[in-house]
Amino acid sequence: MHPLTLDPNHDESLANRTAAIFQQQLETNHKRTDRMFAWLMGLQWLAGIVAALLISPKTWEGQFSYTHIHVWAAIFLGGAISGFPVFLAIKHPGLVLTRQVIAVGQMLSCGLLIHLTGGRIETHFQYFGALAFLAFYRDWRVLLTASVVATADHFIRGYFWPQSIFGVLVINEWRPFEHAGWIIYEDIILVLLIRQNLLEMLGVAERQAKLESVNEIIERKVDERTSELRNEVAERKQAEETLRESEEKFRQLADNITDVFWITSPDLQKTIYVSPAFALIWGRSAASVYAHPLEWVEAIIPEERERVFALFSTLGTGAPSVSVEFQIMRPDGEMRWIHSRGFPIRDASGKVIRLAGIASDITERKLAEKQLERLRNEHMTILNSVSEGMHWVNVEGQIRFENPAAARMLGYEISELVGRPAHLTIHHSHADGAPYPVTECPIYATIKDEVTRRVKDEVFWRKDGTSFPVEYTTTPVRDENGRPDGVVVVFTDMSERKLLEARMFQSQKMETVGKLAGGVAHEFNSILTAIIGQTELLLSDLPPGDPLGENAREIRQAADRAATLTRQLLAYGRKQILQPEILDLNHVLANMVGTLEHLLGREVDVRIVPAVGLKTVKIDPGQVEQVIVNIAMNAADAMPNGGKLTFETANVTLDEEYVRSIPGLKPGGYVMLGITDTGIGMSEEVKARAFEPFYSTKGVGQGTGLGLATCYGLLKQSDGHINVYSEVARGATFKIYLPQVEPPVKVSLPPLKSLDLPRGTETILLAEDDPSLLEMSATLLRRLGYTVLTATNGVEALNLKNQRNIGRIDLLFTDIVMPHMSGKELSDRIWAIYPHTKILFTSAYTENAIVHQGILNEGVTLLQKPYTPSTLANKVREVLDRPLSSPR
After folding, report:
1. Rounded distance, CA 697 to CA 710, Å?
2. Which helix (H) or strand (E) holds 515?
3. In this predicted model, what pLDDT tens digit does every residue of 98-150 receive, in sequence order?
4. Under DSSP, is residue 138 helix (H, G, I), strand (E, B) or coil?
């Protein structure tokens, strides 16, 4: 192997083949060079003989001459030097030994020729020429052998026989080195050239190896392709047969399927095939679409036609597939939904040669989807609209569905709840914060036993950590296969209901207490009226200075105090008779400023903030003043060191949401009177009981506990409302709401007054169910000169009139509430008989429509119990002297 190595990155087989070709080229070159040297060395031998004959043919010794020894040396020594290398070159060309022997012979022949020429310097160039010829072997080892022989010849003969090689008897000792240096210099040049030539030979060998490899591959491919072509021909014949069978099956299938199968040209301008189902779906014959390829497009509704055609056109320009839904109109006007899918058909080069596809009638599916969507939307609308919370918990206890109401009540987004464990998220603890074991949870119990449950008095927990009371129902659900699929929980936030129940309970409690207080006050009023009346009669009968007069006056003062307390009880119970007027609260406050400042003292700074354009209200002016004074006095008590008391008015509107929690209050426009103090404020407990009768935070003997209760009753009787806002050490604000009314044209009739008890001679029918009050009133009226007929109820009064055949009755003075027949009914019957009779009612409260509505019918006069003899005398005279009008 030549010392040059092949590139290791070559393919191994290619490298091996390159090395073989390279080695073959070298061997061929060696043999060819061996034959060249066989001829060359023969010629060199002959040249040496010729040179010897020309230069020194004879040698003389005296007068005799004979052939010079150089001639014999050229013949025999030259023949010996050239003969053996020539023999090897002929008999054994290509051997390393042959090349080495030729190299030695060449150098010895050159040395012999130099000797024969007498050591001339010109003949030394034979060495360089011989080395150049030896370089044809392209083997640096041959040059090495030749150079060693030439150098050795120069050194040996140069020192021992210089005349033979240098042509002189004595030489410079460095001259052999000089000649050796030139030889080495030439060797270096020749070795570089040999290396370059070998690389070129290697490149040639590599290219030849590649060509041979390519030829082998081509030959193998040709063989393989030839075999494949034979197989393809056979397969094509089989495929053609199979294709014919397949086309026949396809045609049979396409002709019988309910979908439309179609094939067109890439530009959709030519119909190659369309299945018979086209006529069934499009309502047009298949022949028509062959004649007019775009007829199927023309059937598409106009608003979709361009979009669909453009979409299918993309198949001819590279789109891999198309799927589109559209509507068509059949010739009979029927609309159909179509789902069409298309794809390109390409040839072997990838060029689109046809378009194919399937069109399906999806009208029924679309109608079903529309119906399903409608149902889904209806269901979602219902689920999203209901105020109850709903969530679906799966069998693993995770929330699968949550409606907006549930998420809103729980303070979450719906996405935050879905997928979370229901119990750990919203039901993990009891109302008191104690852990709620999942094993005790009714929701999970329903998941296990599939029993519907209705649960009350539990709480759910919001995202912010707060809880709210709920009532909920758990209903098991199953999937489409009938397997348990969790539970649906429908729950209601009971917070508002609990609050309403508490308020309703408080309202009912106060209503009950009010009725009790009103009933007691009514009975007590009758007693007080009798006591006051009898006391005044006693005082009128006693002579001046009588000691019993002082006792009678003390009795009268105690009765007056009891009457005041009774009026407060009636006001709280909303049983007090009202005489409402149309009022402007701004004017009421303006007129009361002086009174309030006097009552409250200089330590309290009274401020009025009136609203511009304030609406009017309808309420008894005395009672609204009483409400203002009661609240102002309470405010003063709450500011022992003085402070500010602000009265503010405003027009407000109360909506359904606000009035829902206040029984009896209606939505609409109201006038608001706000009274704000800077006092000590109220605790939650005090605020809760502020309007209860007899509840007071003052010391014993410092208050009756009826002040705010009276305000509450008076305002309720006028269809108003009062509430309080307060915190400890931050003062209190009372807000009074009274319905807005339009002010009517008002005509005032000044009351008839007299300093002396007026007298008269008219006939009065007196009906009163309280015996003591009946006796007192009858005695007083008789003393004043009137004719008095008495009855304890309405029925007795009518019977009395019929039995005695009484003529004219000038005045009916009757209690409103009596057994058997009310005073209102009695007045109606008397009026029917005696239209000229005037009516005067009296009562502490009434259950009829007058009191319930808080008004008196026009023309009817009411004397409120308890009353004094002077009040009775004046009121009777006032009614008798008034012009006659309808009492209704």
Report:
1. 16
2. helix 495-541
3. 888 888 888 887 877 777 676 666 667 777 777 878 888 888 888 888 888 88
4. coil
Q: Which of 867, 885, 521 is nearest to 876 (CA)?
A: 867
CB 467 within 8 A of CB 459: yes
- For residue 499, what are the contacts with CB-CB under 8 A and spacing of at least 6? 661
Encode 564-618 in three state secondary structure: HHHHHHHHHCCCCCCCCEEECHHHHHHHHHHHHHHHHCCCEEEEEECCCCCCEEE
Bridge partners (DSSP) of residue 843 are 864
Closest C-alpha to 487, from 455, 444, 457: 444
The CA distance from 883 to 888, in Å, is 15
Residue type for position 708: L
How many Å apart are CA 418 and CA 546, to the nearest integer? 94
Q: Are 275 and 296 in contact (CB under 8 A)?
A: no
Q: Token digits for 708? A: 């705010």
**How many CA atoms lie less than 13 Å away from 237 in the CB half-sphere?**
5
Here the tokens at position 693 are: 């009768």
- Collect all residues with Cβ–Cβ distance below 8 Å to 549 and sequence separation of at least 6: 539, 542
The structure tokens 């104690």 sit at: 434
Q: At 644, is the pLDDT very low, low, confident or very high (cuts 50, 70, 90)?
A: very high
SS3 834: coil
Q: Assign 301 a pLDDT band (cuts: 50, 70, 90).
A: very high
Q: How far apart are CA 309 and CA 516, in angstroms?
A: 88
Give the helix/strand (H/E) hosting 490: strand 484-493
8 Å CB contact between 707 and 630: yes
d(CA 394, CA 402): 12
C-alpha angle 354/356/359, rounded to 5°? Answer: 155
**What pLDDT shows up at residue 229?**
81
SS3 state at 795: helix
399-402 and 617-619 as β-strands: parallel, antiparallel, unpaired? unpaired
Q: Mention every residue, 6+ apart, whose C-beta is less than 8 A from residue 843.
A: 522, 577, 815, 816, 817, 823, 851, 862, 864, 865
For the segment 425-457, what is each residue's pLDDT rounded down to a tens digit? 888 888 888 999 988 899 999 989 989 999 988
Contacts of 797 (CB under 8 A, 6+ apart): 765, 767, 789, 791, 814, 826, 830
pLDDT digits (tens, 9 = 90+) for 854-883: 434 555 688 877 778 888 899 999 999 888
Contact yes or no for 678/636 (Cβ under 8 A)? no
Q: CB 586: neighbour CB atoms within 10 A?
A: 20
Collapse the DSSP code of 480 into the 3-class scheme (helix H, G, I; strand E, B; otherwise coil) and give the result.
coil
Highest average pLDDT, of 85-94, 232-241, 307-316, comes from 307-316
DSSP assignment of 241-309 equals: HHHHHHHHHHHHHHHHSSSEEEEE-TTS-SEEEE-THHHHHHSS-HHHHHHSTTHHHHTB-HHHHHHHH
Least reliable range by pLDDT among 76-90, 193-207, 551-565: 551-565
In this predicted structure, what is the pLDDT of residue 699?
A: 55
- pLDDT level of residue 303 (50, 70, 90 thresholds): very high
Tell me the pairing of strands 271-274 and 389-393.
Answer: unpaired
Residue labelled with tokens 């009457």: 563
